[in-house]
Design a protein that fits this description.
The protein is of the alpha/beta class. Helix content is 32%, strand content 27%. The chain has an 8-stranded mixed beta sheet, with helices on both faces. The chain has a 5-stranded mixed beta sheet with strand order 9-10-8-11-12.
C-alpha cells in the first residue's frame, strides 16, 4: 500500500506543525506546501507552491490539509475538489455560500472533505458534553480565551458550541439583560440566548469554558489547549478517515460516532 500523499496548505507555524505530524505518521508523506502569500521555493526539504492548481497538477496529492484563512480556503478548494483531491479543513469563518458549494461539489465529484471548528480531541468532547448538558439547563454562557493574534472573535469553536447547544433544545436559552450597562457590550455577543465572551491576551493559546446555571447549582465544562501539537492527533485521524469519504462531513464528532 502506498503512502497517502499530503499537501499542506500554509507555510507558517501551523503548517509546519502539520507537516511534521504527517512526516512522523506511518503511511503518510508530506509532499509539499501551498501558500498564496509565499514565494515559490523549497521549505524543509519539500517544494513550496504559491499556486494551488499548479501544486495539485505537479504533486498529485491525495489530501490537502488546510489551516489558513477564509479568503484563501475557497480558492484552494476550487483547485482541489475538481481534481479529486480530498480536503481536511480547520479554517474558521467560512461563508455559508462556500460551505454549500463544498457540500454540493463533494457529493457530485465523490470527493471527501472534513471541516471542523477544532481538531483537539478534548475540545471535540467538550462540545459534545456541552450539547448534552444543554437539554437540562436554561441558562448558559461561553467564555473563550485565545492569544492576541487571533483574527476572529468569537472563535469558531465558541460559535459552533453555541450552535450545537441551541440545536439540542426546543427553545432559546434565557439571556438576562442588565438593567444598566455603563459600558455597552459588557454582556458579550449572543446566540440563541447563550452569551459569548472573547478574551485575547498574549500568553494564551486556545481555551474555552461553557458555564451552565440552574437552581442552586452550576456546571462548568472547560478545555485548555497549551500547544498546537494538541490538534495533531485529530488532524491525522481526519486525514485517514477522509480517504474513505465521498461527501462532506462537518466536525470530528461525526467521525468519532458522537453525533
Amino acid at each position: 500500500m502506498t503512502d497517502t500523499r499530503v499537501l499542506v496548505s500554509g507555510s507558517g507555524r501551523m503548517g509546519r506543525e502539520v507537516a511534521a505530524a504527517v512526516l512522523a505518521e506511518p503511511g503518510m508523506s508530506p509532499i509539499g506546501y501551498v501558500d498564496g502569500l509565499a514565494e515559490p521555493g523549497v521549505l524543509q526539504g519539500i517544494p513550496l507552491f504559491k499556486d494551488a492548481a499548479a501544486a495539485c497538477d505537479q504533486l498529485k496529492p491525495d489530501v490537502v490539509i488546510d489551516f489558513t484563512n477564509a479568503a484563501w480556503t475557497p480558492a484552494l478548494a476550487e483547485a482541489c475538489i475538481p481534481r479529486g483531491v480530498r480536503m481536511v479543513i480547520g479554517t474558521t469563518g467560512l461563508s455559508a455560500a462556500f460551505m454549500a458549494w463544498l457540500e454540493s461539489e463533494s457529493v457530485a465529484r465523490k470527493t471527501g472533505a472534513v471541516v471542523a471548528a477544532n481538531f483537539a480531541i478534548g475540545a471535540v468532547l467538550m462540545m459534545h458534553f456541552a450539547r448534552q448538558a444543554a437539554r437540562f439547563f436554561d441558562n448558559a454562557e461561553i467564555i473563550e480565551l485565545h492569544h492576541d493574534k487571533k483574527v476572529d472573535s468569537p472563535s469558531g469553536t465558541a460559535k459552533t458550541t453555541a450552535e450545537l447547544m441551541r440545536a439540542a433544545r426546543d427553545r432559546d436559552f434565557i439571556h438576562p439583560e442588565s438593567e444598566k450597562e455603563p459600558l455597552p457590550g459588557a454582556r458579550g455577543a449572543e446566540y440563541g440566548g447563550v452569551a459569548i465572551h472573547s478574551v485575547r491576551l498574549p500568553g494564551l493559546v486556545a481555551h474555552q469554558e461553557v458555564l451552565f446555571g440552574g437552581l442552586g447549582q452550576t456546571l462548568t465544562i472547560r478545555h485548555d489547549t497549551t500547544g498546537r501539537d494538541s490538534f495533531m492527533p485529530g488532524v491525522i485521524a481526519a486525514t485517514r478517515e477522509v480517504m474513505k469519504l465521498d461527501r462532506l462531513v462537518l466536525g470530528l464528532d461525526a467521525l468519532f460516532g458522537l453525533d
